[in-house]
Design brief:
Elements (H helix, E strand, L loop, with lengths): L4 E2 L5 H18 L2 E5 L1 H11 L4 E5 L6 H12 L5 E6 H6 L8 E4 L6 H15 L4 E4 L17 H8 L4 E10 L7 E8 L8 H25 L5 E6 L7 H9 L8 H7 L1
Parallel strand pairs: 2-8, 3-6, 3-7, 4-5, 4-6
Antiparallel strand pairs: 1-5, 2-9, 7-8
Helix pairs in contact: 1-3, 5-6, 6-7
């Protein structure tokens, strides 16, 4: 049988370094990284879970894999991580292997079978593995309906004692010259039948519901629905405006709600 998978070479030390780098990068490039408040409870329960985690992420941009790295670094630093990546990217960016990324040709007829066998073997060896996957399989605008490939359902159906989470990201501009990163995390309830098809439908439904809920909050600029995970102190609208505000004895930073009220 033709081999379509190249293994990861997970390095805890390198992954810790890269996680710290990713947090600093997001602080630098974003006004803030916000998590919808209910997601914190889901994360805390997942931290205590003694089995593997399956985290299904949407894939709207280059940044959402970095979001996954930051979540893993912050909440699951003691878990080995595992994630599929297209073979040509695996060959091009060899350092990613140390982050737990394994290469695969998603269009090969043997790809699904080999991925399931590989992930199952890794989770049997390391029972607290965190498996991250973007099951849409390609960059997809957040406004498009979510369609997922069956790999995530096959993984969820084959792992023992796995907990399945969906992680939705959206990036927008609110009141700062830099964008905001908004994250929503939910647990996907197990379907009645634990088959690949049933899990795939359940995960797709959970992702779509989460994406719709997150979009509503972002459009409404519902800042109170989020807790800040990462930010830059003293977010700026404009340096001259900020100086003028301070001279008048007012706060320089402006919340989204205040910005809308002033407008």
């Amino acid at each position: 049988m033709t081999t379509t998978l190249s293994p990861a070479s997970f390095s805890p030390r390198f992954t810790k370094f890269f996680g710290g780098y990713s947090c600093r990068l997001m602080r630098k490039k974003f006004a803030s990284v916000r998590i919808e408040k209910a997601g914190f409870g889901v994360l805390q329960e997942a931290v205590q879970h003694e089995g593997p985690l399956v985290i299904a992420m949407n894939h709207p941009s280059w940044w959402d894999p970095i979001v996954g790295v930051v979540i893993r670094h912050t909440y699951f630093p003691d878990r080995p991580s595992l994630s599929p990546i297209e073979m040509k990217m695996y060959d091009r960016f060899k350092f990613m292997r140390k982050l737990g990324l394994f290469g695969i040709d998603p269009d090969h007829r043997n790809a699904l079978r080999e991925m399931v066998a590989y992930v199952r073997a890794q989770c049997d060896e390391h029972r607290r593995t965190a498996f991250f996957i973007t099951p849409q399989g390609a960059f997809t605008d957040v406004r498009k309906p979510i369609v997922v490939r069956p790999g995530v359902g096959a993984i969820a159906s084959t792992l023992d004692n796995a907990r399945v989470l969906v992680l939705l990201s959206e990036f927008s501009f609110w009141h700062d010259k830099r964008p905001e990163a908004h994250i929503l995390i939910r647990e996907c309830e197990a379907p009645m039948r634990l088959s690949t098809a049933s899990w795939t439908r359940a995960i797709r439904s959970a992702m779509q519901t989460g994406a719709d809920d997150l979009a509503d909050l972002v459009i409404a600029r519902e800042e109170t629905a989020f807790s800040t995970m990462l930010d830059r102190s003293g977010a700026q609208v404009n340096p001259l405006f900020d100086l003028w505000q301070r001279l008048r004895g007012r706060r320089a930073d402006v919340t989204p709600a205040e910005r809308g009220a002033r407008a």
